[in-house]
Amino acid sequence: MAALIGILAGDGIGPEVTSEAVRVLQSIGARHSHKFEFREGLIGGAAIDATGSAFPPDTRKLCAETDAVLLGAVGGPKWSSPDAAVRPEQGLLDLRAAMAVYGNLRPVVTHPSLYASSPLKPERLTGVDILVIRELTGGIYFGRKERSANSATDVCTYSRPEIERVLRMAGRLAMQRRRKVTSVDKANVLETSRLWRSVATELYAREFPGLQVEHLLVDAAAMHLLSRAAEFDVIVTENMFGDILTDEASMLTGSLGMLPSAALGDGKRGLYEPIHGSAPDIAGQGKANPCGAILSAAMLLRHSLGLEGEARRIENAVLSAIEAGQRTGDISVPGHAPVSTRAMGDAILSRLTAV
């Protein structure tokens, strides 16, 4: 297998965690005789500083040529002025649009070894295995925006084709799992959500008659994620709701630093990133958890390159390292001193090469 992988390290802890994910991919490539070429590009605040653009033309060209893109994180206080002409987050939105990735896959899986790292009781965590599908290129984040001194407007718009394609993606994935999908909306208030629920009802009845379908309002979904998480299989929702709910769901796994994601479109080329932000407060200190980025690399192997066995090796190595007590500060427990970002990567690498 030969593949060109774009590396967009970004800002804050992005370069630190992305570096560990690249080391893991290099190890897997060498072990299984794959030829992975890595090519770096700028995005976010780093790109603004260098070029004035959060998603410069060279990065756009790179992403068009790659088989997959691995992203670190973007943003930070340096670029967060309310009056900033260009913001790092715009680079992320432009990247998603340029790659035509519209469905964001965010797995949320709990493990007994991490129960103590979660603020929830262990009985709330047993058996949780959720796949959240977040619509990624529509809704309020991409709608018309206006602002004056005394008012502001953000328009949320969805079309039937936009809704259908992400619902269809969720349906296909649910049929490969436990055949249950929960569609989350706010249909008691929002017209976009009423359209979403109507389309979901029609599409699943027509195209996925063997699927168990549940509709939940987003506020109820937020509550049930903490009270009956193990009952969910696939959750599909619009852009902003998915952004918020998956940050909440990270508390089931013990830390935001544990969650990977894959952004996919109609082809195999995808965008892969941990769901955490740039964490500028700990950037450069070796405290960041690289597991989300490393698990994102595993998703890259699975979804873009079709290397299921190699993806599972990485996932098993991450879990094995954690079970052995190797943990960064965000998931550390009494009796186990936190390890650095690099040491966490070393612990995972040692388990990849042990067998």
Key structural traits:
alpha/beta, two-stranded antiparallel ribbon, 10-stranded mixed beta sheet, Isopropylmalate Dehydrogenase, 11 helices, globular, 355 residues
Element string (H = helix, E = strand): EHEHHEHEEEEHEHEHEHEEHHH
Shape: globular
Number of strands: 12
What is the number of independent domains? Answer: 2
**What CATH architecture of the largest domain would you give?**
3-Layer(aba) Sandwich
Distance between the termini: 21 Å
Number of helices: 11
Beta-strand percentage range: 15-25%
Question: What are the low-pLDDT stretches, counting only 5+ consecutive residues below 50?
Answer: none
Please name the CATH topology of the largest domain.
Answer: Isopropylmalate Dehydrogenase
Radius of gyration: 20 Å
What structural class do helix, strand and pairing data support? alpha/beta
How is the biggest beta sheet arranged?
Answer: 10 strands, mixed
CATH superfamily of the largest domain: Isopropylmalate Dehydrogenase
- List the strand order in the largest sheet: 2-1-3-12-11-4-5-10-8-9
Helix content: 40-55%
The level-1 CATH class of the largest domain:
Alpha Beta
User: What's the mean pLDDT score?
Assistant: 95
Please provide a written account of the structure:
- With 355 residues, this protein is an alpha/beta fold.
- The protein has two domains: 1-102 and 254-355, Isopropylmalate Dehydrogenase; 119-251, Isopropylmalate Dehydrogenase, CATH 3.40.718.10.
- The chain has eleven helices and twelve strands.
- The chain has helices spanning 14-31, 44-51, 57-65, 88-98, 160-175, 191-207, 218-227, 239-253, 291-303, 308-323, 341-352, and strands spanning 2-10, 35-40, 68-73, 103-109, 129-135, 145-147, 152-154, 180-185, 212-217, 234-237, 262-264, 270-272.
- A ten-stranded mixed β-sheet has the order 2-1-3-12-11-4-5-10-8-9, sandwiched between helices. Strands 6-7 form a two-stranded antiparallel ribbon.
- Helix 7 (218-227) runs parallel beside helix 8 (239-253) and helix 9 (291-303) packs antiparallel against helix 10 (308-323).
- 48% of the residues are buried.
- The mean pLDDT is 95.
